[in-house]
Design goal:
Order of helices and strands: EHEHEHEHEHHHEHHEEHEEHHEE
Strand order of the largest sheet: 2-1-3-4-5
Shape: elongated
Largest sheet: 5 strands, parallel
Helix content: 40-55%
Strand content: 15-25%
Radius of gyration: 30 Å
Distance between the termini: 45 Å
């Protein structure tokens, strides 16, 4: 078992040595520094579990040290030693990330109690973080396993339905055809839900960041429009694109960014009005490359906008409910955009239309 590591930062030598002697008897590994800067240098080279730092020191006081420790690693426990223990000073150091404070003069027992308490917090934080990571990994693995186990047999059923509907197995009555068509539609919805679940489980910022490359935004939009232009024509929706001249390339993963744009454009068509429009614009704004997808559709009630990107959320409008959907599309869009280091904004006028704006980094950023 590794020894707990404590770093003592104090400009008084006798205070440093006293702390070292007491804590060593408790089986704790102790390092010492006489200034805040020296202590921070040591901390960055070999991070401790806990830092004991004097409040009043020349050049850099304990509050500043606590602030920098929290900036370097918020999981390191910081305890302030102070001979000026007041409520105000305690509140000040707590605001800067200190876990506790120890008033001077203190006894060995008081030192041991406060350090043990801090190390116990450190242990519990580590265990909690490990459990959260394990839980997240189990959830990802479970979703992937279940969806794969479901998708294969459902895909086979879908193929059988298509064979039956093509009359290869014999001519169907009108009632049989209608029943099989309804079954096929339901199965398509379930397959889409499974695919969305898989997408949610696969989206991890690290994986997307490893696939980033400089891509012209126009090619991303063209890829996203593949097949959707025909859907728009069927509904009488006018699709237009406008890309600002000399627009820099974007730093994206082409496949997942195409999925973002395709999802937004598909929604703009699906929840639009007959003979409406969808306008796709790409421009440079406030240091970002921004793709706007504007539609003349149903719009979104203001009270629903904060919930749009939550999993399984669907608007209450009857027209929206009438359309098939899993309620995962926009949640996937937001996760992909955030994994790119970007953001997405929504503006909507209920009954008149909506604009979804995707902000992504320029390739030269």
């Amino acid at each position: 078992m590794d020894l707990a590591k404590v770093l003592v930062i104090d400009d008084e030598e006798i205070a440093r040595i006293s702390c070292q002697r007491v804590l060593k008897r408790e089986g704790i590994q102790v390092a010492m520094a006489s200034t805040g800067r020296e202590g921070l240098d040591m901390l960055m080279r070999e991070p401790p579990d806990l830092v004991l730092v004097d409040l009043k020191m020349p050049e850099m006081d304990g509050v500043e040290v606590a602030r920098r420790v929290r900036s370097f690693d918020p999981n390191i426990v910081t305890i302030i030693i102070t001979g000026y223990a007041t409520i105000e000073s305690a509140v000040a150091v707590m605001k800067e990330g200190a876990y506790d404070y120890l008033p001077k003069p203190f006894t060995p027992d008081e030192l041991i109690i406060v350090v043990r308490r801090g190390l116990e917090k450190r242990r519990l934080d580590r265990e909690s973080r490990a459990l959260r990571e394990e839980k997240a990994a189990m959830e990802r693995n479970f979703i992937t396993m279940v969806t794969h186990q479901l998708r294969s047999p459902m895909g086979a059923i879908f193929q059988y339905l298509e064979v039956l509907l093509s009359d290869i197995g014999g001519e169907l009555t009108q009632m049989q055809r209608e029943m099989l068509e309804r079954a096929k539609e339901r199965l398509e919805g379930l397959l889409q839900l499974i695919n969305d679940w898989l997408d949610m489980s696969r989206i991890q910022a690290g994986e997307i960041l490893n696939r980033l490359q400089a891509v012209p935004v126009g090619s991303c939009i063209d890829a996203a429009l593949t097949g959707l232009d025909f859907t728009a024509q069927q509904k009488g929706i006018e699709l237009t694109t406008e890309i600002s001249p000399a627009l820099p390339p974007v730093q994206v993963d082409p496949d997942s960014f195409r999925e973002v744009l395709s999802n937004l454009i598909s929604n703009a068509i699906k929840y639009n009005r007959p003979d409406g429009y969808v306008r796709i614009r790409a421009s440079e704004r406030e240091g970002w490359v921004v793709v706007d997808v504007e539609d003349s559709g149903l719009g979104i009630e203001e009270k629903e906008i904060p919930f749009l990107f939550e999993q399984f959320f669907r608007g209450k409008d009857k027209e929206v409910r009438r359309q098939e959907g899993t309620g995962l599309g926009l949640a996937i869009v937001q996760r992909i955009v955030q994994a790119h280091g970007g953001k997405i904004e929504v503006k909507s006028d209920y009954g008149k239309g909506s604009t979804f704006s995707v902000f992504v980094n320029k390739a030269d950023a």
